[in-house]
Design brief:
The relative contact order is 0.15. By secondary structure, the chain is α/β, with parallel strands linked by helices. Strand 3, helix 5 and strand 4 form a beta-alpha-beta unit. It has three domains: 67 residues, Winged helix-like DNA-binding domain superfamily/Winged helix DNA-binding domain (Arc Repressor Mutant, subunit A, Orthogonal Bundle); 124 residues, D-Maltodextrin-Binding Protein, domain 2 (3-Layer(aba) Sandwich), CATH 3.40.190.10; 116 residues, Periplasmic binding protein-like II (D-Maltodextrin-Binding Protein, domain 2), CATH 3.40.190.10. Helix 1 packs across helix 2 and helix 1 packs across helix 3. The C terminus is likely disordered. The strands form three sheets. Strands 3, 4, 5, 6, 7, 10, 11, 12 and 13 form a nine-stranded mixed β-sheet that branches. Strands 1-2 form a two-stranded antiparallel sheet. Strands 8-9 form a two-stranded parallel ribbon. It has nine helices and 13 strands.
Length: 332
């Protein structure tokens, strides 16, 4: 039978990448950590780590056991929450991770729906990127993470589950008066000679791939992790950008374009026009990350359904088929 404490030690070794660093976190000696890993390997009959002068890395059996360790830790955290609810008489609690623009778009309505059904639910919402959210959901410190990825199917590893909610296409954002600002739609190849402002590091790879197909390499003059900052630079004439529809600082106008002087415009970002892409172009896919558990989590299930209902009820711009969105001001 596998010793749960040894699983916990292996999990920390995998996180830290070395016995010494794991020992410091666990308040053990490196020798004790090494002995526990060796004992785990003897019980399994297979190595769980490969040792080298650079540290350690997991073998395939090691990855399987770390997934199991993550599941055990999450189940214990869930059990502790449920015990606390019984002791304190709470109706339940939810810890959520989110990114800014997706949270602004989906969470207010979804949480309002949830609280109407369960008014006593205790909520804790924190902003986190995808990498952080994966860790938090896997270890049980977050029950659900609202997050995104760019293009293609997202297949989370281990016991994680991905629920798609909506597609969020990227628009071309130009300064007002730009030679292309009056167009109803633009092909990516038409932007080959433009200076580019990037508002998200995760989007850079997807943009590079689509640009390569279109026959050019973007000339990037600014790399940022803030879509509002990126749009402010575009408004100043520094370059053009591709911005997810949900992160546009303005609201769609009747022509299908977006102008910052419209009803939803932000006064600090006037001077922008957004035009949809024609043909293949990158999209952000927004969804919810959860952990598959042995015991059902009714509150997580209700929130997932509320998120689906909210996403399905968003108005379509008509420019992107099944995509539905509004356009709040948001940095992420």
């Amino acid at each position: 039978m596998v010793d749960v404490r040894r699983l916990h030690i292996l999990r920390e070794v995998a996180r830290q990448g070395s016995f010494a660093k794991a020992a410091a976190v666990l308040l053990l000696t490196p020798s004790a950590v090494s002995q526990q890993i060796a004992a785990l390997e003897r019980s399994l009959g297979l190595p769980v780590v490969e040792r080298s002068t650079r540290g350690v890395r997991l073998t395939e059996p090691g990855r399987i056991m770390v997934d199991a360790a993550d599941a055990v830790a999450a189940e214990l955290a869930d059990a502790q929450c449920r015990i606390s609810e019984l002791v304190d008489g709470h109706t339940g609690s939810l810890c959520l991770d989110t990114f800014s623009s997706g949270g602004q778009l989906l969470l207010p309505d979804a949480l309002s729906r949830l609280l109407a059904e369960q008014p006593g639910v205790e909520l804790a919402v924190a902003e986190a990127d995808l990498e952080e959210s994966v860790v938090h959901v896997r270890e049980g410190s977050a029950d659900l993470a609202l997050t995104f990825h760019f293009d293609g199917p997202y297949m989370p590893e281990g016991a994680l589950s991905w629920t798609p909610l909506l597609r969020d296409p990227l628009w071309v954002v130009l300064p007002d008066g730009h030679r292309l600002a009056g167009r109803d739609a633009l092909a990516l190849a038409e932007l080959a000679d433009e200076p580019w402002v990037l508002g998200c590091m995760l989007a850079a790879q997807a943009i590079d791939q689509y640009a390569a197909v279109a026959g050019f390499r973007p000339r990037v003059v600014c790399r940022s992790s803030d879509y509002v900052f990126a749009q402010s630079l575009v408004a100043a004439g520094v370059g053009i950008s591709l911005i997810p529809e949900t992160a546009l600082a303005t609201s769609p106008g009747p022509s299908g374009r977006v102008g910052s002087s419209g009803p939803g415009g932000h006064p600090g970002l006037r001077g922008l026009t957004a035009v949809p892409l024609r043909g293949p172009g990158p999209s952000r896919h927004i969804g919810a990350l959860t952990l598959r558990r042995r015991w059902p989590q009714p509150l997580v299930g209700r929130l997932l359904q509320a998120l689906r209902d909210t996403a399905a009820g968003l108005p379509s711009t008509g420019a992107h088929g099944s995509h539905r969105s509004v356009a709040p001001l948001a940095p992420g």
